[in-house]
Design a protein that fits this description.
The structure holds two protein chains of two kinds. By secondary structure, chain A is mainly α. Chain A has a domain at 26-88. Chain A has helices spanning 3-21, 30-41, 45-55, 59-88. Chain B is built from 17 helices and six strands. Chain B has a six-stranded parallel beta sheet. Chain B starts with a helix and ends in a 10-residue tail after the last helix. Classes of the chains: A mainly alpha, B alpha/beta. At the A-B interface, helix 1, helix 2, helix 3 and helix 4 of A face helix 1, helix 2, helix 3, helix 4 and helix 8 of B.
Chain lengths: 96, 475
C-alpha cells in the first residue's frame, strides 16, 4: 500500500470516528465541545514543528515556521484553557 | 529502530487519548477531565514528534520563540475573556489555527517544494485554500460579533454572488496552476483570492446565523489541519484534523436544525429578515403591535409571590445586561419561599448552542435546573408564571401556528401555555430575525419594560419588602 493511499485510509477512518464520537451531545455541552474541538484542531503545531526542523538554516522558513507555531499554540493553549474555564463552572447542586 | 517504535507508540496513545477526550466531552460528568485528557494527548503528540525529529540548536531557538509567544498570548486571552464573549474568542482561536495551517503550506510551497510529488502539491493547494478561508472568515465573524463590522448593503444584493463566484474561480485557477510553479504567482493568487473569499462568504451573514458560521469554520480548521498533515506527511495530524472536521459538521447540522434553517440558506441566503440588513441585529422598529399590556415590576413581583411554579426563559439579552447573577439571586429567594424554580433553555439561546448554559453556570445555577426544550415544554401548562428575559424568537408562538411566519417550523418554547407570562424587554423592537412576536399580544402576557438587570433588581427589592424569603421566627 502506498503512503498516499495509507494516508487516505487514515483520513477516512478519522472522519468516521469523528462522526461517531460526537453523535450525541447534550446542548449544554455544545459550546465547550466546539471550543474543545477547536483546541484540538490546533494540532497543526505538529506541522509547524516539522517545518522548523526541515528549514535547516533557511531563516525565512524558520520565521514562517515559528510564526505558524505561535498561532497554532495560541489556538491550542487558549482553546484548552477557555474550555476548562467553562467546564469548571458546571457544578451540581451542593457540589460547591 | 527503537526510537521509531517509541514514537509510534506515543502517537498511538495520543490518538487514543484524543478520541477518548472528544467522547468524554459529550457528558457533563466527564467533560472537564476529558478536556484535560485531550490536552495531555496534544502534549504527548508534540513530545513524540520532538523525539522523532531531534531539532538542532537553531531549530530549538525558533521553537522556543514561537512557543513562548503563542503560549503566553493563549494563557492571557483565555484567562481574561468574559464568558459573554465566548463566541468571539472561539472564532479568534479558530482563525489562528487556520492561519497556522496556511503558513505551513505557504512555507513548504516557497522553500521546500523542489521534488515534491503531485500529492504534496495538491495538498499544499488544499491547505492554503481551506486555511485562508478559515482564517479570514473567522476574523470577520469575530469582528461582526464584537460589533466592529456591520453588514454592508451590497452584500445583501445578488452582487455578492458575482463577487464570490469570481473569487472562487480565481482561487481555482491559482490551485490548478500551482503545481507548475509552486513558489510563484499562482500561490499568491490562491492565497489572496481564498482570503477574500472567506471575507466574502462571511460578511453577508448576520445576527442569529453567526454561530452556525463559526461552527462551520471550526470544521474547516480541522480540514485545514488534515490537509497540512498531508503536506508534511503526519498521520496523527490527518486523524486529529479529520475528527475535528467531522465533529464541526455534526455540530453545524445540530444548530441549523434547532433554528429550522438549512445550511444552504444560512450560507447563501443573506441575513434573515429585512431589519437585520443594517447589521448587528435587533434593529427593527416598533413592529405594529396593537394589544400590548405592560406592567410594573411591582405587579410582576406580586404574581411571583403567589406562584407555586416559576420558569425563567433566559435569552441573550440577559447576558448582555450581565443579569445572570441577579437572576440567580431572585431564583434563590423564590426557592426559599417554597416556589419550584426552573430555567427553560432553548437549544440556540444565547449566541451559540449551550452558550446560555455556560453563562448561567458562571452564576452558580445548578445544571439540573436548566431544562431543555423537550423536557420543559410539557410542563408549561402547569406553570404559574413564566418570565422571559431577553429572549424573543425562541418563544414566538407563530413558529407553531402561523405558516406564513418566516419562523414557521422552528421548535420553540411553548410559554404561551403557561398561566401568566411576563416578558422583560427594553422596548418593543424586534428580535434578531426582525419578526414581530405574537406572544406579546396574548391576553396572559404582560410586558415589563426595562433593562433585564434593573428589572430583576426591582423584583428582588419588591419581594424582599413583601417579606418573601425571610425565615419566619415563631415565638
Amino acid at each position: 500500500m502506498s503512503a498516499f493511499s495509507q494516508a487516505l485510509w487514515v483520513l477516512l477512518l478519522g472522519s468516521l470516528l469523528g462522526l461517531e464520537l460526537i453523535g450525541k451531545v447534550p446542548p449544554t455541552l455544545h459550546t465547550p465541545l466546539m471550543s474543545g474541538a477547536n483546541a484540538i484542531s490546533g494540532i497543526t503545531v505538529l506541522a509547524s514543528l516539522t517545518l522548523i526542523q526541515k528549514a535547516g538554516d533557511n531563516q525565512a522558513l524558520l520565521l514562517i515556521g515559528a510564526l505558524s507555531l505561535g498561532f497554532a499554540l495560541y489556538n491550542v493553549v487558549g482553546g484548552f484553557l477557555v474550555t476548562d474555564r467553562m467546564l469548571a463552572m458546571f457544578r451540581r447542586k451542593g457540589d460547591n | 529502530m527503537s526510537t521509531e517504535l517509541l514514537t509510534d507508540g506515543i502517537d498511538l496513545v495520543a490518538v487514543l487519548l484524543l478520541g477518548l477526550g472528544i467522547k468524554g466531552l459529550s457528558k457533563v460528568r466527564s467533560a472537564r477531565g476529558a478536556n484535560q485528557l485531550a490536552a495531555v494527548a496534544m502534549g504527548l503528540a508534540v513530545l513524540g514528534l520532538l523525539i522523532e525529529i531531534r531539532p538542532g540548536p537553531m531549530a530549538w531557538l525558533w521553537i522556543a520563540a514561537g512557543t513562548a509567544a503563542g503560549g503566553l498570548a493563549g494563557v492571557v486571552t483565555a484567562l481574561r475573556v468574559p464568558m459573554t464573549a465566548m463566541p468571539e474568542v472561539v472564532a479568534l482561536f479558530n482563525g489562528c489555527g487556520g492561519l497556522a495551517s496556511l503558513l505551513v503550506a505557504v512555507g513548504v510551497a516557497l522553500f521546500d517544494s523542489d521534488g515534491a510529488d503531485m500529492v504534496a502539491l495538491v495538498s499544499i493547494a488544499i491547505s492554503v485554500f481551506v486555511g485562508a478561508i478559515t482564517f479570514s472568515g473567522s476574523i470577520v465573524a469575530m469582528a461582526k460579533l464584537q460589533g466592529w463590522l456591520s453588514t454592508p448593503a451590497w452584500t445583501q444584493s445578488s452582487l455578492r454572488h458575482v463577487v464570490n463566484i469570481s473569487l472562487a474561480v480565481a482561487a481555482l485557477v491559482g490551485a490548478v496552476l500551482l503545481p507548475g510553479d509552486p513558489a510563484g504567482l499562482p500561490l499568491w493568487l490562491l492565497v489572496i483570492s481564498s482570503s477574500l473569499l472567506g471575507v466574502g462568504v462571511t460578511l453577508p451573514i448576520g445576527g442569529a446565523d453567526m454561530p452556525v458560521v463559526i461552527s462551520l469554520l471550526n470544521s474547516y480548521s480541522g480540514v485545514a489541519a488534515a490537509a497540512a498533515g498531508f503536506v508534511v506527511g503526519s498521520q496523527l495530524l490527518i486523524v486529529a484534523g479529520a475528527m475535528v472536521g467531522a465533529a464541526g459538521l455534526i455540530l453545524t447540522q445540530v444548530m441549523c436544525t434547532a433554528m429550522n434553517r438549512s445550511l444552504l440558506s444560512v450560507l447563501f441566503g443573506g441575513a434573515l429578515g429585512a431589519s437585520a440588513l443594517s447589521g448587528g441585529g435587533g434593529a427593527g422598529g416598533e413592529a405594529g403591535y396593537s394589544r400590548i399590556t405592560s406592567c410594573s415590576p411591582e405587579e410582576c413581583a406580586m404574581a411571583l409571590e403567589q406562584a407555586e411554579r416559576v420558569v425563567f426563559v433566559p435569552g441573550y439579552g440577559l447576558a448582555v445586561a450581565q443579569a445572570q447573577h441577579a437572576l440567580r439571586e431572585l431564583a434563590k429567594l423564590l426557592e426559599n419561599h417554597g416556589v419550584e424554580v426552573s430555567y427553560a433553555i432553548h437549544p440556540v439561546a444565547g449566541r451559540m448552542p449551550g452558550h446560555m448554559n455556560v453563562l448561567l453556570a458562571e452564576a452558580d445555577v445548578p445544571y439540573e435546573q436548566l431544562l431543555e426544550m423537550d423536557t420543559i415544554n410539557p410542563e408549561f401548562p402547569r406553570t404559574d408564571v413564566v418570565i422571559v428575559l431577553g429572549a424573543n424568537d425562541v418563544v414566538n408562538p407563530d413558529a407553531k401556528s402561523d405558516p406564513t411566519s418566516p419562523l414557521y417550523g422552528m421548535p420553540v418554547l411553548e410559554v404561551d401555555q403557561a398561566r401568566q407570562v411576563f416578558v422583560v424587554k427594553r422596548s418593543l423592537g424586534a428580535g434578531y430575525s426582525g419578526i414581530s412576536n405574537a406572544l406579546f399580544e396574548r391576553p396572559q402576557t404582560a410586558m415589563v419594560f426595562g433593562d433585564a438587570k434593573a428589572v430583576l433588581n426591582g423584583l428582588l427589592s419588591e419581594l424582599r419588602s413583601m417579606g418573601v424569603g425571610k425565615v419566619k421566627v415563631t415565638a
